[in-house]
Fold:
Amino acid sequence: MSKAQISTSQVQGHDHIQGSIDAPFKLIEYGDYQCPFCADAHEVVKEIQERLGDQLCFVFRNFPLVEIHPFAEHAAEAAESAAGQGRFWEMHDTLFENQNALTDEDLAEYATELGLDARRLIADVRKGAHAAHIKKDLASGEQNGVNGTPTFFVNGQLFAGEPNPEELIAALTESNE
Structure:
């Protein structure tokens, strides 16, 4: 397997998935909650999900760029902690919608708003309780040539186009013919 291709069989049990793994179209994103381009891509993904419905399997993997985004790692930890409380996608959306406010205090506030155990979430964040999961995502990305965010893989192939709904949908449908 080349660096530019991810086998869809690599979708793991620890991955965060929306849609059926058996859906005909698969979109994997490596993202960073503090990256402004990822916030833009988040809106693009939402539109693609709306347009493709149950034909799309979307996978999100953490790729915090801690050298340039000092709050990205704690935000990823918060999302993983929320996953442990059954609310990953709600926290995922909240983090992208509020990416200019990602301090630990902000994360605790979001946890409370989402009905999560905020103390548990902040304890997880501060001790790096989900560091192994995040490192798995990072290693997977690095192994497949990811060096920035957002990076998308469309049906197992590295997507090199502009991450907008039209180009991503065209890539999804064309590469699956």
